[in-house]
Specification:
Elements (H helix, E strand, L loop, with lengths): L12 H19 L2 E2 H14 L3 H15 L3 H10 L5 E2 L2
Antiparallel strand pairs: 1-2
Helix pairs in contact: 1-2, 2-4
Amino acid sequence: MSYSYPIDSTWSKEEIIDVVNFFSIVEKAYELGVKRDDILIAYTRFKQIIPSKSEEKKLCGKFEKESSYSCYRTVQKAKEKRQGERVKM
């Protein structure tokens, strides 16, 4: 990994950990595959921290520009899968 995650310095330590966890799960979906439920749980927590759609697009856009991994496409694919299935991008 030769890029950094988009982080807001106003977030608490726990929020930073949860946001990094979400981006990490998106990475794993591309590289190895991840359980659908893990993606959706991490995304739900991400949305608790980043409720604004425009802020979500901004952060995920930065992440995609750095890593080439799409949060949006990963979450959409997870929503299409059934419980217990794996998502491999």
